[in-house]
Amino acid sequence: MKRTIYITAIFSSMILCFALPQNVQAQDHSKAIAAADSSRFSPNKKDGWQLFNSFVSKYQKDSAQVELILQHDGTIDWKQEQLVGKIKFQPLQPGSTQSLPFKLLNETYSLRIDDKGKCYLKFVNGIMPSANPFIIPLKVNYKL
Known about the structure:
Strand content: over 45%
Radius of gyration: 20 Å
Largest sheet: 5 strands, antiparallel
Number of strands: 10
Strand order of the largest sheet: 3-6-9-8-7
Shape: globular
Order of helices and strands: EEHEEEEEEEE
Distance between the termini: 63 Å
CATH topology: Immunoglobulin-like
């Protein structure tokens, strides 16, 4: 037997009513993750990191920029650095290890990029994230 869910909403003097089929599913990010550009950055899939999008490019003649949107579905130990992935494009790997702080609202994080391009994320200050899945956008500039 097929059931239908009815939803009614009242806005000022207008009443809206519409029906949803019973098989409505939650949003699935698998298509976005599958289509992510991993030509210059590869996520650490072994430890549960997934890539929504990446942008790794030269910023000025002696620096580069990395922008990432990453997701982790499991519980993260924020007291430890997390290997989130690697900059694969060798010309954009830094000459030396660099720790790059960045803020998201009131929280401070640090992205450490070593001289081989490995990227480590660490929570520094604020309210520690607790939600799963954890999705983080980040953007940092670094010296080549």
